[in-house]
Design brief:
mainly alpha, 11 helices
């Protein structure tokens, strides 16, 4: 005859077996903490000087646990790239309604400011990570051109990749040239600089730069590219051929 105590013990054992205890050190929250610490360490000390050990110390975990979650320093760097890029893109979308104040709001957030510092270091890094990051940014802008962004529609071009790369360069340059701009404008921070630049950037996006063009020149920047045959310096090779050394064969 089984006692009630035996039944209770059996059910308790089954429940314990069904819900195994998970170490808090392997939880998603731990991985997020490691990512945040890595982004901060990379942004402050650069990618070469930052070590797995220093990241682990900043996150309050062991170096082995960092490797457990991300495999290697390269794997962690890639995860940081994706994490930062997604966070910045989401923040821009959420603040788009504030127009000229959107970037100021992003830079005023200490956490986002750290992520932007990381973004700049990654873009300027000569490794393949830097190129991957820039391609990721251009891809995002190209998607905005095709599908719009937070209610804004983009002028369409015959060369959307070139258009996207141009817009990406314009959008990233204030952060890349932050120190130069602060000296030129007399500002004390990137957030303050963006407050000065944002109205002009928005006006540039909406209205362009030129108010008039020379007579006979196109007044739109999205005209078809000039073909090689139509360029002023192109020669009529049929009427005046030249030899390989540049001599006149007529």
């Amino acid at each position: 005859m089984r006692s009630t105590h035996d039944d209770s013990s059996s059910k308790k054992s089954e429940t314990t077996a069904a819900r195994p205890n998970r170490s808090p050190h392997v939880s998603p929250e731990t991985a997020e903490r490691i990512l945040s610490a890595a982004v901060k360490e990379f942004s402050e000390h650069g990618f070469t000087k930052t070590t797995i050990r220093s990241i682990a110390s900043a996150a309050g975990v062991s170096p082995g646990l960092v490797i457990h979650h991300f495999g290697s320093k390269e794997g962690l760097r890639t995860a940081c790239d994706d994490h930062v890029f997604a966070a910045i893109a989401e923040s821009k979308a959420q603040n788009a309604e504030y127009a000229v104040h959107a970037m100021q709001m992003i830079f005023d957030d200490p956490d986002m400011s750290t992520k932007i510092d990381y973004l700049m270091k990654s873009l300027l890094d000569p490794s393949e990570h830097g190129q991957r990051y820039f391609e990721h940014y251009v891809d995002l802008v190209e998607d905005y051109i095709s599908h719009g962004f937070a209610g804004y529609a983009f002028r369409q071009s015959d060369d959307p990749r070139g258009q996207a790369a141009t817009i990406a360069t314009l959008a990233l340059s204030p952060s890349i040239l932050a120190q130069r701009l602060q000296t030129s404008l007399g500002t004390n921070s990137t957030a303050e600089t963006m407050t000065r630049l944002a109205p002009h950037l928005l006006d540039l996006y909406l209205n362009g730069v030129l108010s008039a063009t020379p007579e006979g020149q196109p007044d739109r920047a999205d005209t078809e590219p000039v073909s090689d045959d139509a360029r002023p310096d192109s020669a009529d090779t049929d009427s005046k051929p030249t030899d390989p050394l540049g001599g006149d064969q007529s």
